[in-house]
Design brief:
The complex is a heterotrimer of chains A (96), B (130) and C (142). Chain A is an alpha/beta fold and 96 residues long. Chain A is built from 3 helices and 5 strands. In chain A, strands 4-3-2-1-5 form a 5-stranded parallel β-sheet, sandwiched between helices. In chain A, β1, α1 and β2 form a beta-alpha-beta unit. The longest helix of chain A is centred in the C-terminal third of the chain and has 10 residues. Chain C has one domain: 3-Layer(aba) Sandwich (Hypothetical Protein Ychn, Chain: A), CATH 3.40.1260.10. A 5-stranded parallel β-sheet of chain C has the order 4-3-2-1-5, sandwiched between helices. In chain C, β1, α2 and β2 form a beta-alpha-beta unit. The longest helix of chain C is centred in the N-terminal third of the chain and has 22 residues. Classes of the chains: A alpha/beta (96), B alpha/beta (130), C alpha/beta (142).
């Protein structure tokens, strides 16, 4: 199982399509930096193929005022949760 | 676990350096070993010794130095990427006939072989990108 | 397509994947997502690949998205003599970097065909891309 981090908004960049292609059936996706925009209810649909396996970094949501607007089906984790995800994953692959 | 970090983003231009430094601090706080941070691409600017950010902003370079001093984290800078961008230590500066220098210890100029080794010897390599 | 048709297609995909499985194993997979000239990411990604290969590591390259344009024939220098990456690409074979994977969907989206490219490539599906992520010890994205 691999972890994929994505730091671009799906409203801004198509790199999310490559991320999704590279995700195996039990891989997990962590949205960080500008990528946390993907946790908004209107944008989270781009990640419906991996629903239930989408995480967003709390500090980056908070800093952008987006924490309260985050979709229910996105798991919010802080930096310690980020580290735990990297512990569980064989590899962490970065998309930007 | 033994971790390595690859940092590709320039400080103060992209969030990558802030993300990487916060991750690095949390790693050591959790008891993991952070072996090295490897600075490549625009990430090499993190090593600029003359950086003078305003006092009300986090001082990223000092943050990296503190990780080295307190936790023995190696700070490796890709020499090819650094020289192109005007980041030279004293040895390289004199070799290239330049006055002054822009990188100093604990940041060390090194080759990409170190990055490959780091990736293969650590349990995890985490990249922070622009 | 019928359910049976899907199953057959999936089966063929797995078979095709197994055929290239030996090629897909290695120490380092470098993913290249950027074309030449516009940024230094392609060049710096290729540099990491060459150094790893020079140290005897088995290296594969995976070109994704607009990174597929990195292989288009007929590239030259940029204005002011900006070097580009053609010369580096020509060195890959010498360094035994022969597994060049390209994202099939991106090739289609860009309207590129294998014959437009300067080096022999293997077009890969999402399943093969996922396999490559697990069969390499280290993955780096540029």
């Amino acid at each position: 199982m691999n972890l994929h981090t994505l730091n671009r908004s799906p409203a801004d960049s198509r790199v999310y399509q490559q991320t999704l292609q590279a995700m195996g059936h039990d891989d997990q996706l962590l949205l960080i930096e500008d990528g946390v925009q993907g946790a908004l209810p209107q944008l989270v649909r781009y990640f419906e193929d991996v629903e239930g396996r989408v995480y967003a970094l709390k500090e980056d949501l908070e800093a952008r005022g987006l924490l309260g607007l985050c979709a229910d089906n996105v798991h919010v984790v802080d930096v310690d949760g980020f580290i735990e995800l990297t512990e569980q994953a064989d590899k962490t692959i970065t998309w930007y | 676990m033994r971790y390595g970090i690859l940092l590709l983003g320039a400080p103060y231009s992209r969030q990558a350096s802030h993300s990487a430094l916060r991750f690095a601090r949390a790693l050591v706080a959790k008891g993991h070993i952070l072996d090295s941070v490897f600075f490549y691409h625009d990430g090499v600017y993190n090593a600029a010794r003359l950086a003078a950010p305003p006092q009300d902003e986090p001082h990223l370079m000092d943050g990296w130095k503190a990780l080295h001093d307190e936790h023995g984290v190696k700070l490796d800078v890709c020499i090819a990427a650094a020289l192109r961008r005007g980041l030279l230590n004293e040895t390289e500066a004199s070799r290239h006939g330049k006055e002054g220098y822009s990188i100093e210890a604990p940041f060390a100029l090194t080759g990409l072989g170190q990055l490959v080794d780091l990736g293969l010897r650590c349990d995890r390599l985490i990249t922070f990108a622009p | 397509m019928s359910k049976r048709g899907f199953a057959k297609e999936a089966e063929e995909e797995v078979r095709a994947m197994n055929d290239t499985q030996t090629d897909l194993q290695g120490d380092l997979l470098v993913i290249l997502r950027h074309g030449p000239h516009g940024s230094s990411l392609l060049r710096e990604g290729l540099d990491m690949a060459l150094v790893a290969a020079a140290f005897g590591r088995r290296v594969s390259l995976l070109f994704m998205g607009t990174g597929c344009t990195a292989l288009v024939s007929g590239q030259g220098q940029g204005p002011l003599g900006q070097k580009g990456t053609q010369a580096t690409l020509n060195m890959l074979e010498m360094y035994d970097i022969e597994t060049l994977l390209v994202e099939s969907e991106a090739m289609h989206a860009l309207g590129l065909k294998a014959c437009d490219l300067s080096l022999p490539v293997i077009e890969v599906s999402p399943a093969q891309i996922q396999a490559a992520m697990t069969t390499h010890r280290l993955v780096a994205t540029f």
